[in-house]
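Q: What structure does this chain adopt?
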Amino acid sequence: MNIRKILTAAAATAVLSVAGASAALADSGYNQNGYNQDSSRYDRDYRDNGRDRHSGWRHEHRHFADHDTIFRSLRYNHIRYVGQPYFVRGHYVVRSFDRFGRVSFVEINPYTGGVIGVIRL
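A:
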């Protein structure tokens, strides 16, 4: 008799917890895809997805990679650099030596610090 009461109580608890979770999901205002059903059409169409509503993209400044990141990238690619990187026409340039000891310039991506290519003189 005691086991029957325990099993009945466990089944009732499981049914009530599932019903409570579905009711909480229905009352939250979000559908299954995560969109808010209670928001207006303006909010849904112009939600902040990293874009500005009028121009298509935000006009905020992306930070350039610091010199330590650039030097780390050069060392990772086994490039012997000389001096500091300087900014020329949208990318960083670092004077370096190639494996034969000739002077070359390395182009660096200013946002990530990754090596774009080598300009041999």
